[in-house]
Specification:
alpha+beta, 4-stranded antiparallel sheet, 5 helices
Amino acid sequence: MTESLDATDWAILAEVQREGRIAFTELARRVNLSASATKERVRRLEADGVITGYRAEVDLERTGYGVLSVVRLKYPGPGTRHEPLRRLLEERPEILECLRTTGDDCYVLKVATTSMGHLEEIVDELAQFGSTTTNLVLSRTLPFRGPRVPRTGRFEESPQHGRPRQ
């Protein structure tokens, strides 16, 4: 899909990632298009599955979830018991994100809890699936920011057309 994203699409993506509730008129001004052309582009990006949703950023501490951690989970032997873990992920809203990974760990989970005891409860539940390693997050040096225009030569701007070239 990246091959069909031009500089204007990337500008739109940057703006809606920065401010998901931006009005089409303001977005149009920022990307130098008409409001109707901007709305059409956003709808196309949504229809193509490039924009998959809009979310509010929530301050975890202000909601009572002051302990943020990263838990790595390693299954013993061949990892074939994934369905029970998926059920646990559905049941525990404290688990904010779960990534299946390669390497020594099978999963990396981002977990927000109200206390160390609450974290221990979650880690104990995860430990039924294998060994865990837990790291406490001290601060967010770089919060999640979403993708930007790739900097590789493959998607450089074509000076004649303003479109990525391959």
